[in-house]
Specification:
Largest interface: A-C, 51 and 49 residues
Number of domains of chain B: 3
Oligomer: heterotrimer
CATH architecture of one domain in chain A: Orthogonal Bundle
Shape of chain B: globular
Order of helices and strands of chain A: HHHHHHHHHHHHHHHH
Helix content of chain A: 55-70%
Largest sheet of chain B: 6 strands, mixed
Number of strands of chain B: 20
CATH architecture of the largest domain in chain B: 3-Layer(aba) Sandwich
Chains: A mainly alpha, B alpha/beta, C mainly alpha
Radius of gyration of chain B: 25 Å
Number of helices of chain A: 16
Strand order of the largest sheet of chain B: 6-7-8-3-9-10
CATH class of the largest domain in chain B: Alpha Beta
Distance between the termini of chain A: 21 Å
Structural class of chain B: alpha/beta
Chain lengths: 400, 502, 418
């Protein structure tokens, strides 16, 4: 959050406004300044993350070389990474496919950050949301596609919201730290899914392994690049995700609820003294965050997977934390960060296939990106960049 | 021989000179009072003496030999002991553990010799009359005893110079007396005592020399035997000070807030507020006096709806609000200036504009069903910033960048700008500069004259007396006295604050 | 807040919590009557000795239905007493007793008409509590000094990987030492980012977890698959302590184990003693509670934290070696499977006390081992639900149903000199 001290320029412009009263002008100036406080500051938003990504790739390359790759191997691996992410229609499609759930998983973390909560439960929320979506996806028949998709998505919202609201409620009522409860609920969701996938009403007929029925064609999200190439998988989920990002920005900075959330996040004591129900805010925030993660799960099911398998979330929830950190908990920043991580995922597949470099190196690179972004002072020290704005701490220990 | 001498100490911080060319001397057996307003540079000077800061210029001499402190460790080794305003104790440790921390008597493999440690504590407490149980947990001890633990701590480290930062600000009048008995004991044992205070009475009664700081400089020193309180005050502030608040006779109206038999208990069932009953009428200011921690905080929390009472009733404008939320009371007509401005009164990361609607953002003026109305919010901010003279006059800056006085003005602006019948002000001027104090006091009186019922809770007895028409004194959760201000004296109130009952 | 004993008026919240606990116990009793008794018949036979022991005990044989009724009655009595009178400060202990009785009932029911080796389960409980107890110790060392350690999982996984690779190359002891060192390296990074760059400690912990999981998975796929000789470390075998190991029941449970088990007991004692009896411990705890106070008496806050966190890492890395060198001798992707988080819960459960951590770890180890054994008995309870149990218990514990845990006051807060 960039603070914006004096804006002499704006004051000067006020004088040129002529007939308008000075006060009216300063009211408008105040609107412009104060509501712009949380807009993305493009320069600071790109420099440190850019250098962080570069540094992470360098270290990733060193790790590759330590495991026997030559320098030219590393270059060709990164070439494959880049080509797999952006080099063709297929690459772009795959990048967007990977980015879609990441946007929502990232928003689920970012929104909670803003409201003073650390949501590590994206993984479980995605699983439960996806589970609801898959059940609605195969069990309802004979309805038109738009309605079926809407119902299945809403099911995803509901499932994720329930799973998210539990830690919110526990924090509000008992003070249980959400980091612990969300981690535990991740494991519980994983086991619950394992169990349910073997029940007859979900398991695909004739199968002994844990796999659900497939969703009906009417629940499948339309793919919009099929005119270019019928096999391109990118689906309308990307638009849904971006729309939800815009909605989140609006929610945080334009609504009463967002005001409450941000007040609770920045100073819960003062929020309480101002008459805001802090506990209620925790529950609502976590329900909304969980709902967004639930949509991520639903989009994966309805747009990509078509059915549920054990652990289908594939660590999306954890990548969401990384995305939120990289995007500095700003909804639009989250979109950009998710696109980057989507590109890494898509490119990583290509890297694995053509350069024979294990996809897990991507997780290492992502971890490095996060730590460099979280420690901007380190990046500045390495590259001798001047400091800009300080980052607010996100959590305050177990009792916070 | 001079025990301690400072020569031309100068310390600069970005944008400010905290200390400029400060020189002073202290002999063994001397009690030196260092007085000055908040921001006069007292604490910086003491931190330099304690090795927490290095001076940019100047010299420290101990027993006429120049010394340099790289950290508190050096200062301690040289015989300087500091008792901080906020005690530096570990609450979950016992007394002796706190005392020996850093200088533990140990045997093989660093195992602490518990018995030796305890005996050392007992020996020192006997020698200087500092009775304290070495095995008690510090968190269970009253403030006065905790202070003794701090004193034992510095004595164990062989301190010859003892520095006290605002030593009496959290003590009861009784504990204050006991404290100065201890100070005399230490002085007679040949120690050098420096105490920092803004309470002029104490400086004059208990020291041999007074040094006054203003704006980072020594502006004078005085002999407490010959100087008057007013003279020191004038030196401290740099102009004549009007310690009295101008106000007209109260025109008391109807009862606006009725509090009946309130009882609050802590998690262990011990009473924090014990059977408090009073009425607050329109057009009057009622002050609640008392030493910190005697239930005032909890009383305010119950009245404003932030805490549930175990028993009793709160009635606002004839409506029973005992179990209504803070929001509902706010909407009914209650304003609240909380005691801790940084933690409770504002969101530092929010702009001034957002802070000015922190508790009324939901009202139809500022919001629709879902969204905020940006134009009225901005207009409100521009108006209030001008009306209450909040500086800098920029509604868009983050509130955390404002000075303490301006932050408090911002909170007062938010709470006083609404036309509310009942106002609760907790510590309205704590840590605020003199100019802002005068301004805030005037605003409180103006609200009273417009017919509002005002409850002022303050641990500064002078403030309570200056503002209130009527005074309640709280001690251990009970109201032990109720007096009309014109019919009582600071001495009488002080006795009640110390626990005398009717 | 205090330990001062005085007459207590229970607040509403406390009374409600006491009643909730009572209801839980009563529900357990009902569950025994409802779920277990109708399906239990015959005798339950519990083996008390392993075949190779010097002194053989006769198996314990109990009539299933009768003993279940008895256990249900005890549960109902406990629940009723708790509901109406409340055990107050001892409520936690009695809840533990009630859960134990319930588990006993579960075992009687599951074993009805069959044989079950009680000793086998106790012995595997102790073995399985090792990584959790040691992980919790790693957390305690860090957090007592004021640095939140959510990276226990990463330390375990890293230790497991390094242990197997170095162990394959130079032997078990070398692997053990290397694993221990790898934990210290990770911990040093935690301290470095948390202290030097004041990065949010939970974020550093998560990053370490992601990093280690990614790197070990990458190296497993990239290197170990093609070099299986690097994934084949010697296993440290059990070593029976003479005389003590021959005592019935206790011997096979505690004294016929690997060095990991003995080391766990030694480390628990050592760290408990160190934290509460020595200069190092006093200073470390003071830094975790009130760093400013420690600083003003000349204690170097950040150095104390570096040391404590690094020590925690040593313990965490050592614990990680258990997964490979202590059990199977080979590494699999993500083989720690969340034990680090269970250790974290055990640490909170134990209120940052080493001995309590051992007790909590035993509970989790027991549930882990119970899950395995019940599967063998073919109990009609889905194994997924048994697997969930520790996580549910953790949530209940953290939600403070058994009393609020109080973390070190400065836990998670970087220390900044003014």
């Amino acid at each position: 959050m960039a603070e914006q001290p004096g804006r002499a320029g704006l004051d000067a412009r006020d004088e040129t406004l002529g007939q308008e009263s000075v006060q009216g002008a300063s009211v408008r100036a105040a609107v412009m300044q104060s509501f712009a406080v949380d807009r993305l500051d493009w320069r600071t938003a790109f420099l440190v993350p850019g250098l962080a990504i570069f540094s992470a790739l360098v270290i990733g390359g060193l790790i590759l070389m330590a495991t026997g790759s030559s320098f030219s191997d590393v270059l060709s691996a990164y070439r494959a990474l880049f080509m797999g992410a952006f080099g063709s229609w297929r690459a772009i499609s795959e990048t967007l496919v990977a980015a879609t759930p990441l946007i929502l998983a990232g928003l689920a973390v970012a929104l909670a950050f803003r409201a003073g909560l650390f949501n590590i439960g994206g993984e479980g929320q995605i699983l439960i949301g996806g589970l609801f979506a898959v059940i609605l996806g195969f069990s309802i028949s004979g309805v038109p596609a738009p309605l079926h998709i809407t119902l299945a998505l809403l099911g995803g919202v509901l499932g994720g919201a329930i799973w998210g609201a539990i830690p919110g409620y526990l924090k509000a009522k008992t003070g249980a730290h959400e980091v612990i409860t969300t981690i535990m609920l991740n494991f519980i969701a994983l086991r619950l899914l394992d169990y349910l996938l073997l029940r007859s009403f979900i398991q695909r007929e004739g199968r002994n392994d844990p796999v659900s029925e497939s969703i009906l064609p009417s629940a499948q999200l339309p793919r919009f690049l099929t005119p270019v190439d019928p096999s391109l998988r990118v689906h309308i989920g990307i638009f849904i995700a971006i729309a939800i990002a815009a909605l989140t920005q609006w929610l945080l900075f334009r609504t009463k609820l967002g005001f409450e959330m941000r007040a609770v996040g920045a100073n819960p004591v003062a929020a309480k003294y101002a008459g805001i129900n802090v506990g209620r805010s925790y529950v609502i925030t976590m329900a909304i965050a969980g709902g967004m993660a639930g949509v991520a799960g639903a989009l994966q099911i309805l747009g990509v997977l078509g059915r549920a398998t054990p652990g289908f979330s594939a660590r999306l929830g954890f990548d969401g934390i990384a995305v939120a950190l990289l995007g500095r908990s700003n909804p639009y920043g989250v979109v950009l960060a998710a696109l980057l991580f989507g590109a890494l995922r898509a490119g990583g597949q290509e890297m694995q296939a053509t350069a024979n470099v294990g996809i897990d190196i991507i997780a290492v690179i992502q971890a490095l990106i996060i730590i460099f972004v979280a420690a901007p002072a380190l990046i500045r020290a390495i590259y001798r960049v001047k400091a800009s704005s300080a980052q607010a701490p996100i959590s305050k220990g177990w009792s916070g | 021989m001079t025990r301690l001498e400072l020569r031309g100490i100068t310390k600069r911080f970005p944008g400010v000179i905290a200390n400029q060319d400060i020189s002073l001397k202290a002999e063994p057996g001397q009690v030196l009072a260092l007085v000055g307003e908040n921001g006069a540079g007292k604490t910086t000077l003491m931190n330099i003496l304690y090795g927490l800061y290095q001076p940019d210029d100047g010299q420290i001499l101990l027993d006429d030999k120049p010394v340099k402190f790289k950290g508190p460790g050096d200062a301690i080794a040289a015989g300087i002991g500091m008792v901080h305003q906020h005690f530096m104790l570990v609450p979950v440790f016992t007394v002796y553990e706190n005392v020996i921390l850093g200088v533990e008597p140990t045997g093989a493999a660093g195992v602490i010799k518990t018995k030796v440690a305890r005996d050392e504590v007992i020996e020192i407490s006997n020698r200087y009359g500092l009775a304290v149980d070495p095995d008690a947990l510090v968190e269970d001890l009253p403030v006065g005893i905790r202070q003794r633990v701090e004193i034992i701590k510095v004595l164990l480290r062989g301190a010859q110079v003892l520095v006290f930062d605002e030593p009496t600000s959290v003590l009861t009048p009784q504990e204050v007396e006991e404290f100065f008995v201890i100070v005399k004991e230490l002085r007679d044992a040949g120690k050098t005592i420096i105490f920092i205070t803004h309470k002029l009475k104490e400086a004059i009664s208990f020291s041999n020399q007074i040094v006054v700081l203003r704006g980072g400089q020594v502006v004078g020193s005085a002999d407490p035997k010959t100087v008057s309180e007013e003279e020191v005050a004038a030196m401290m502030v740099g102009r004549e000070v009007d310690l009295v608040v101008d106000k007209e006779v109260a025109r008391v109206g109807e009862v606006k807030l009725r509090v009946r038999n309130l009882m609050v208990v802590d998690d262990y069932g011990r009473p924090l507020v014990d059977g408090v009953t009073f009425d607050l009428k329109g057009g009057e200011i009622v002050g609640v006096a008392g030493v910190q921690g005697n239930g005032q905080t909890e009383l305010v929390e119950v009245i404003t709806g932030l805490r549930q009472p175990a028993k009793g009733q709160v009635e606002l404008l004839g409506v029973d609000v005992t179990f209504k939320s803070a929001r509902e009371r706010h909407a009914l007509g209650m304003a609240h200036v909380p005691e801790d401005r940084q933690d409770m009164g504002m969101v530092g990361a929010f702009s001034v504009m957002e802070n000015l609607i922190l508790d009324s953002y939901y009202s139809p003026t500022f919001a629709g069903a879902i969204t905020l109305k940006r134009q009225p919010i901005a207009k409100n901010a521009v108006d209030l910033v001008e009306q209450f003279d909040i500086r800098p006059p920029m509604p868009a800056v983050a509130a955390s960048t404002l000075s303490g006085g301006n932050q408090q003005k911002m909170i007062v602006a938010r709470e006083f700008s609404r036309d509310v019948p009942v106002i609760v002000c907790s510590q309205p001027t704590r840590g605020v500069d003199v100019g802002s104090i005068e301004y805030i006091h005037a605003q409180i009186v103006a609200k009273r004259d417009q017919g509002a019922a005002v409850l002022v809770v303050s641990t500064e007895l002078d403030e309570v007396i200056a503002l209130s028409d009527r005074i309640l004194v709280m001690f251990q959760g009970r109201v032990v006295a109720e007096r009309v201000t014109s019919e009582t004296s600071p001495t009488e109130l002080g006795l009640y604050m110390a626990g005398r009952t009717n | 807040m205090s330990t001062v004993k005085q007459a207590k008026v229970l607040t509403k919240g406390q009374r409600r919590r006491a009643q909730i606990l009572g209801v839980i116990m009563l529900l357990l009793s009902v569950a025994v009557v409802w779920l277990f008794i109708p399906n239990a018949a015959g005798q339950a036979t519990f083996g008390l000795s392993t075949p190779d022991e010097a002194i053989q005990l006769d198996p314990l044989v109990v009539p299933a239905t009768g003993s279940l009724w008895f256990l249900a009655a005890v549960l109902a009595f406990l629940g009723g007493t708790q509901f109406f009178r409340g055990f107050q400060s001892k409520a936690t202990i009695f809840l533990g007793v009630a859960l134990l009785i319930f588990v006993a009932a579960l075992l009687v029911w599951a074993t009805a008409g069959k044989d079950f080796s009680l000793i086998g389960m106790l012995s595997s409980t102790i073995a399985r509590c090792v990584p959790i107890a040691l992980g919790a110790l790693a957390g305690i060392l860090c957090e007592r000094s004021g640095v939140i350690n959510i990276a226990i999982e990463g330390m375990l996984l890293g230790g497991a990987f390094v242990g197997v690779v170095v162990g394959s190359l130079v032997g078990g002891i070398g692997g053990l030492l290397a694993a221990t060192a790898s934990g210290a390296v990770l911990a040093w990074f935690l301290a470095f980012f948390a202290i030097r760059y004041r990065v949010d400690q939970i974020i550093v912990g998560i990053v370490i977890n992601i990093f280690v999981l990614g790197l070990t998975s990458f190296l497993t796929a990239q290197v170990l698959v093609s070099r299986p000789d690097l994934n084949d470390a010697p296993i440290l075998t059990a070593w029976q302590i003479p005389i003590l190991g021959d005592i019935p029941i206790i011997g096979p449970t505690f004294f016929n184990q690997t060095w990991f088990v003995y080391a766990t007991f030694i480390l628990v004692a050592l760290i408990a003693f160190g934290l509460f009896r020595t200069r190092w411990g006093l200073r470390t705890r003071s830094v975790g509670e009130n760093p400013k106070a420690a600083d003003t008496v000349g204690i170097n806050v950040n150095r104390t934290r570096y040391i404590a966190v690094t020590l925690g890492g040593l313990v965490g890395g050592f614990a990680g070696a258990w997964f490979t060198i202590g059990t199977v001798g080979r590494f699999d992707e993500n083989m720690t499977g969340g034990r680090g988080f269970i250790a974290l819960a055990a640490m909170i459960f134990a209120r940052w006390n080493p001995i309590g951590a051992l007790a909590a770890a035993t509970v989790f180890g027991f549930s882990d081992s119970l899950q395995q054994k019940l599967a063998v008995l073919q109990v009609p309870i889905p194994s997924e639900f048994l697997a969930m149990a520790p996580y549910l218990v953790t949530i209940v514990v953290v939600a403070g149903l058994v009393g609020r845990a109080r973390a070190p006051a400065a836990d998670g807060q970087p220390y900044v000199k003014e």
